[in-house]
Amino acid sequence: MPEVRGSKFGDNIVQCPDWRTIRDQFDQIPKPERGLDDGGEIWQIGWIFRGHKKTCYPLQPSIERAYPYSGWNEAEYQAFREFQSKAALHMDVAQLPRSSDRLGWLAIMQHYGAPTRLLDFTYSPYVALYFALRQHGENESDSVDVWALDAASLRKRAIGISRQADKIVRDHRGRRLQGAADYH
User: Fold this and answer.
1) Looking at the 3D structure of the chain, how many domains does it have?
2) Residue 83 maps to a domain
3) Could you tell me if residue 43 is inside a domain?
């Protein structure tokens, strides 16, 4: 019988001591369905998963880990501008997103290891488990985490947070430009 403990998210955390328990728990997860988002794009509705090699790791994008207290929005903006300005020197121009496709650019930055607000997920709990175990070292605890999240709820929240971060950067840049105009 798997051990269940509470979490700060109000859901349960299930500790699986063996492969059979892992399989049984994964088999209880509803299979994803395809649906349409607000823009008419097809995407999967259901659970998404992320694997962590340590149980103490929070769900936190690399940009927030690099700038834990504040300022990640401005740091991401600077990295974004630099990456976007130099990408054509190193990549096939036909593969680059439109300059206005911020999410497309962030995805490419993420792929090449730049810190961004994005966090990688998969629709397969087995793939998430693979990544948790692949990065797990011999000297680390015996436990790894596979996070399971409702994709629709997460997407709605992520859009709001991204819009808020973009607004903060725009407001900050506007104040900076206004300050420069006042100086002259």
Assistant:
1) 1
2) yes
3) no
Cβ burial, residue 51 (10 Å; 0-12/13-18/19+): buried
Classify residue 123: in a domain, yes or no.
Answer: no
Show Cβ contacts of residue 174 under 8 Å, excluding neighbours closer than 6 positions: none
pLDDT tens for the chain, 184 residues long, are 555 454 555 466 788 889 999 999 999 988 888 777 777 777 777 889 999 887 777 888 888 888 877 778 888 888 899 999 999 899 888 889 998 888 899 999 998 888 888 888 898 999 999 988 887 777 777 788 898 888 878 778 888 888 888 888 778 776 665 555 554 4
Interior CA angle at 170 toward 165 and 171, to 5°? 95
- The Cα 175–Cα 172 span in angstroms is 5
Provide the sign of the torsion angle of the four alpha carbons 155, 160, 164, 167, taken in this order. positive
Task: Quote the tokens at residue 75.
Answer: 């740091």
Q: How far apart are CA 184 and CA 167, in angstroms?
A: 26
Gap between the Cα atoms of 49 and 123, Å rounded: 6
